Amino acid sequence: MKNLSRISALLVCLALPCASVLAQEGVNVERMSRLRSLIPEKELEQQATQQYEELKQQARAKGVLAPDTDPQLQRVRAISRRIISQASRWNEAASGWQWEVNLIQAANVNAFCMPGGKIAFFSGLVDQLKLTDDEIAIVAGHEIAHALREHGRERVAKGSLLQLGANLGSAIFGLGQTGQMIVGQGAQLALLRFSREDETEADTVGLDLVARAGYDPRAGVALWRKMAMLEKSAPPQWLSSHPSGSNRIAQIEKTLPQVMPIYARSVNANPGALPPYRSNVQGVPPVR
């Protein structure tokens, strides 16, 4: 009876609209989904750490895990560190995460950040798109934003709800195995597919992080224009979970007026005097 009361209270809470927003200087986003509370945070992070270690072991065994001395890895880590320094603004728990950034030397055009701050870039993403530092920052900011907004935790929760159905209450509140069954559904956390709403939010929060770290948010427009050029010849893996298109670029452009003043301040510049962002690939026009 006690458990039934707890379940009823939780379901009522989940049914309430998320009308309130989290105000930040620059951008506003809705509060994080209450669904994520169905998944024990620490257990999910432990699952992510385990999977990340397995990925590293496999990459090391194949000789494709970049060593600490690798210049490209050092570059990605330096850029990521600047963005991570801004992370606690969006999630206080991030200050206690054991952040890690690695580079896998493979042709895959891909990158991800798992719950708890486990980041991986594939060299194909940097090489094939000829990413500038600002564009690497856009990718890192976007992926880190997914972790900060706990989209993976929400995705696992939704997947578990669908799979467990009527057993939801017993799985969550059952004695002795609280959360264990649900966390088990989170296998392959690096491969989670996020909703369009999650992707838009990760773009928005990512641009905020990038601006505060001193990287040009307008690089986001250039990045997706590059991605569109690459997609015509060979659709990259990243697009399977990160849909592109003119709508995405339009959304980024809509957010720029909110984050450009932050960027200008971070680089001690007058917002009105900033030169256009220029990428390094012919066919990608300057972004004003």
Write the layout of secondary structure elements.
Layout lengths: L1 H14 L5 E3 L4 E3 L10 H21 L9 H14 L15 E5 L6 E4 L3 E5 H6 L4 H16 L2 H14 L3 H6 L6 H5 L11 H17 L6 H15 L4 H4 L4 H21 L22
Parallel strand pairs: 3-5
Antiparallel strand pairs: 1-2, 4-5
Helix pairs in contact: 3-5, 5-9, 5-10, 9-12, 10-12
Question: What does this protein look like?
Answer:
Helix content is 53%, strand content 7%. It is built from 12 helices and 5 strands. It has helices at residues 2-15, 41-61, 71-84, 123-128, 133-148, 151-164, 168-173, 180-184, 196-212, 219-233, 238-241, 246-266; strands spanning 21-23, 28-30, 100-104, 111-114, 118-122.
Describe the structure concisely.
The chain is 53% helix and 7% strand. It has helices spanning 2-15, 41-61, 71-84, 123-128, 133-148, 151-164, 168-173, 180-184, 196-212, 219-233, 238-241, 246-266; strands at residues 21-23, 28-30, 100-104, 111-114, 118-122.
Record keyword descriptors for this entry:
5 strands, single chain, 288 residues, 3-stranded mixed sheet, disordered N terminus
Instruction: Give the helix proportion (percent range).
Output: 40-55%
Please state the overall shape, judged from the principal axes of the Cα atoms. Answer: globular
Low-confidence stretches: 1-23, 161-187
User: Largest sheet at a glance?
Assistant: 3 strands, mixed
**Share of β-strand residues:** 5-15%
What order do the SSEs take from the amino end to the carboxyl end, as H and E?
HEEHHEEEHHHHHHHHH
Strand order of the largest sheet: 3-5-4
